[in-house]
Amino acid sequence: MEPVIELDEQRLAVMKNLSLPLMVMTGDQNDYASLDILTALAKAELSQNFFVGVMWDPSFPNIHHKTTPSVTVFNSLDETTPRYGGRFDREGLLGFASLVSQPLVRQFDMSSLVSFMKSGLPIGMVYSTKEDERKALADVLSVVAMKHREDINFATVDATKSEFFLEPLGLQVDQLPAFVIQTDDRVFKFSPDMTITPEAIEDFIQRTLYSQTTPIAAQK
């Protein structure tokens, strides 16, 4: 297999659902300098953790085409689709790759729960009964998840399948979607009167995990 694969719609549909994440470059097809940088990384540092491809078709959905080079990462276990549009150099791409080689926002299930428990990190959870809403909120929070890659696990929770979690967390179905941070012994609930945005969740994280805030467990 070539280190960098030229993708079309059919190849993309197959490769974005494989076991390794797929990193896709878009931009100017004649930008050989950027392609050379990506190819060198695909042969070395990226080879163990990513499939790497290029896609020049600007009509395909989920691929954001610009005149400047950018990359999009597809991971079948990730609820979001991370994108990088910063400096297209070795340092910038490797820094981004280190953040997204594992899912930024996972679906909450037994497999992810085991992984979360092993990490010992707090879990930031988006609760919703609607799949499209969970996906949209995961995308909204991707920048926060990248910032706190080493500090917090993020997950989406199907509130219909996991309805039994709602009451212990102080959540009501008519207040969904909701965001909650759970640590080993504490639960912090984002105000249902506020909109879930990157800025609001970042402020919530700072106030709860890094300041003195009364958790739900202590309020009962």
From TrEMBL:
Gene3D superfamilies (UniProt xref): Glutaredoxin
Domain of life where this protein originates: Eukaryota
Short name of any one Pfam family annotated for the protein: Thioredoxin_6
InterPro entries (alphabetical): Thioredoxin-like_sf
Stated name of the protein: Thioredoxin domain-containing protein
Organism of origin: Talaromyces atroroseus
Organism ancestry: Eukaryota, Fungi, Dikarya, Ascomycota, Pezizomycotina
